[in-house]
């Protein structure tokens, strides 16, 4: 009965799957790089499709990649130039503010007990020279890290270009892995995945911009220094679900603590208000329009990605969740519901 399955082709395929599972932990970074390129390519593909009739697929892909790269720089460079003075002042006075914050915490009392009695501040203060020395000692590693980021960025750009330029060829080769009766379904599933993960990029960019602008307005109203810079940080960190906003709030409070308890409470309230507006109004509208993905799935994908895929997996977790949801819907839920519907119709007959 099972002899038909024990063919040489199936055995080779099974061994290949086992080999891929074995090496997957070793190539996670490469897999995430290609998946990130695929996500960005899906976001740019609608624009390439519109331009290819006029310029051709290859030229349209080059234009899309160049414009996309220029848009990234155009988004950050003017803001950084405007905030240059704030950034320079922030870097210059950050050590003093950090020391002042430690002194403030040292003298802070809770129910008559000083915080310094509960938490040893000597270790925190004593560690600062070591931190500075480590920064100097590892300056070469930092420079090398910047070079590696540049190499990865160039590689990512090239991968995106080839995914866009050879989209039809790559899709055709992918569908060839399926038998004739499943080719149409495979093509439909791939199209659905591309539409959803492409929508993730557009939704995420708009969400980051909205969060950054709203937080900047709140900080300006409350008279917090470096409002533009802190709004920029909040918007950029919003790409990291849960953890990003927490880090942004910590940076804001570190800068704003001299304003007093009342202002700090108002800042926290304003930050929470911005997050609520983002989570319950902005993001549902954007992600509902572009991805049709429930927030619970995003949370589940976030925790699983953090556990198995690391930092970049967390950033790509909504796109990964969209891919998995499409596969579950098309390969499991849709066939089951179709069978149930057929059974009901047969019973009625």
UniProtKB/TrEMBL annotation:
Pfam families for this protein: AI-2E_transport
Membrane topology: Multi-pass membrane protein
Cellular-component GO terms for this entry: plasma membrane
InterPro entries assigned: AI-2E-like
Transmembrane intervals: 7-24, 30-48, 60-84, 140-164, 205-227, 247-274, 286-305
Main location: membrane
Subcellular location: Cell membrane
The keyword Transmembrane helix belongs to this UniProt entry's keyword annotation: yes
Keyword annotations of the record: Cell membrane, Membrane, Transmembrane, Transmembrane helix, Transport
GO biological process: transmembrane transport
Family recorded in the similarity comment: Belongs to the autoinducer-2 exporter (AI-2E) (TC 2.A.86) family.
Protein name: AI-2E family transporter
